[in-house]
Amino acid sequence: MPSLDHTRGRGGGGRPPVRRSRELGGELSTPKLRVGTPERAGLDPEELHRLVREVRDLTAGARPWAAGAVVLAGRGPVIAVAEAAGWAVRYGPYDPEAGRHVELPPAARVPMTVGTPFDLASLTKLFTSVAAMQQIERGTLGIDARVGAYLPEFRAAAAHGITVRQLLTHTSGLRPELPLYDCADDAARLALLRAEAPTAEPGAYLYSDLNMLLLQCVLERITGRTLDVLVHEGITRPLGMTATGFGPCRGAAATEDQRRPWAKADRGMLRGVVHDENAWALGGVAGHAGLFSTGRDLAVFCRALLAGGAYGPARILGPDFVELLLTPPGLGFAVDQPWFMGELSGRGAAGHTGFTGTSLVLDPATDTFLVLLANTVHPRRRPPDSGPRARAATRMARAVRET
After folding, report:
1. Multiple choice CATH, 22-90+112-259+268-399, 3.40.50.960, 3.40.50.150, 3.10.20.740, 3.40.710.10
2. Which terminal Cβ of the chain has fewer Cβ within 10 Å, N or C?
3. Are 226 and 246 contacting, i.e. CB atoms less than 8 angstroms apart?
4. pTM of the full predicted structure?
5. Chain segment 160-177, per-residue pLDDT in tens
């Protein structure tokens, strides 16, 4: 998979490889996740029953919100909900002439399971952000440093003084995306990124995939390692997230029958390969998209952050840097966003959504987490609807019992 930083190889020059994780020197290991009852987790079983029922309903009927879904929810080290509904593969190619989804016969469908991997789409940004925070903690990356200090050949970003903090907070002014998928080769894609100047006044919020692509370039430059290696060695391996990684991914939930005019490329029905067209054009490893994971692995990720950066004997970030990551407006993470967090918002809950139908929310105030994964773009993308995510988060908020 090609690196966005073409001046460095996978293990190329610069500093020697540095292990991101470390044992908890002098500290007790944090408890790992275990399956338990809602009562043991300090959660209302009736609210969680409603949550599960409503998630199941999202996959039912002729025009469901999603073909299939997985929900995991818990508090502290206890997973109180782990349920799957619907289908990982339900449809064949979309019929544009009839304007309808073509359902496979029951024997040809693939049931959803709790262990089904999903294309995380923009949840990938959270891992890129944590990888950046690890470098900030080490002192190899300055949060308010200018991107041009690390990537002088990115002349447009350098000329406008874009900073690392602006990339993490989506305040660089860069447009939401570029048509990298239309470029002839990697050199042309890199040239387009290097020439891209802000289209809005820096400092104002404008969500952009380009922020994470530039951050990927910075990380690859200062470490001499590609993003997939940084995520694996610094996050997923120490946390034991063995089902998480950049694709291709066998057994993943299907996404889209990707064809023009509704998509930006003609690739057919996608399963186990990245859905995002720009991430696909970049070889499947990108700062904004490309990771695959399961509900259980994402619950581990949430738990590590809720525990101040530690999980079991491993620590991926110090507590102060986790707090910095999740403090409003959030560095890579969205904080207090009612449009997908429902009643979990307003008290410091943090999380993100992904275009393919994925989302996670963690609430430090109540030590709770909610992972809702769905393949809402199967077999064809539709206008986004985060109402079900917000309702699920509200159920989770109402399930919390005061201690």
Report:
1. 3.40.710.10
2. C
3. no
4. 0.93
5. 999 999 999 999 999 999
